[in-house]
Amino acid sequence: MSAVPCIICGSTQIEPLFRTRDRHYGIAGNFSVVRCVGCGLVHMDPIPSLEELSAFYAQDYYAYQPLIRSSALISIAKKLLKAQINTRNPTFEIPGRFLDIGCGSGEYLHFMKVRGWDVRGVEPSLFGASQAQREGLDVVHGTLHDAHFPANSFDYIRSNHSFEHMPNPGEVLLEIRRILRPGGKLFLGIPNTESIPYRVFGRYWWYLGIPVHTFSYGTSNISALLRRTGFHVDRVYYQSNYSSILGSLQIYVNRNSSRRSTEGMLIRNPLLKVAANILARLCDFTRNGDAIEVIATKPSEHFADQSA
Hints:
Layout: E1 14-21, E2 30-36, E3 42-44, H1 50-56, H2 72-80, E4 97-101, H3 107-113, E5 118-123, H4 126-134, E6 139-141, H5 144-147, E7 154-160, H6 169-179, E8 180-191, H7 196-201, E9 215-216, H8 219-228, E10 232-238, H9 246-253, H10 265-268, H11 270-285, E11 291-297, H12 301-307
Parallel strand pairs: 4-5, 4-7, 5-6, 7-8
Antiparallel strand pairs: 1-2, 2-3, 3-9, 8-11, 10-11
């Protein structure tokens, strides 16, 4: 039993899953993970505050690194290893105003800017935001609420593998709905707890991401949360790669040691990466992949609601 109702279904019934520790970054401590009996939402218990979460991130966190322009050789290598995943973004007739939430050092902002978009970013890490600003990108250091964007001001808002880091996802979605224009598009890239890799690996799952991942969603409950906060879910894509299987295996092998998820022979083996990518794509094909991309729209009727 939980004193706090589920953010999606309102249930106060939770079941303990396990206690686990960070497998990626060397963060100290053990953390409890539970699941809502009503909708299956997996989350930490208790949920860390924004201040506690900010202390978990080191400057070497991958999203905070300076922008590196990929060479042709690196791009070819990624394609050969089948390691590169191109996100399935919504299409637009012309560029408009774009916001990247949790933009890190601004790699995707730069990508959109050179394609004609008027770009903005929000990044809670001072180090990450500073890296983006050095590149001449308009990035607010803080949370989405700290930015105080005007209503109906963006055509496209993206949160790619940052939404699961947020301790207040319902509030964030309501703010996104407020600042997204009627008919505007939202992209959420998140892990999927309805996947085969999650069901197989559990506490050793690569994408569990404790303690920086506060909530872990499945396709069903993230769709329910989007509808509850006023969005129409257009499409769900399954976009996994080798890390979902090979990375989880490496974490399992390292489980009784202090080695991190990226340390070991499995995760570094190119042939195993190719084989794991094939398995991951099979999971995607059967809609059991552990990384999903959700495209949603702010319906036009909400414009009338806000202006009433």
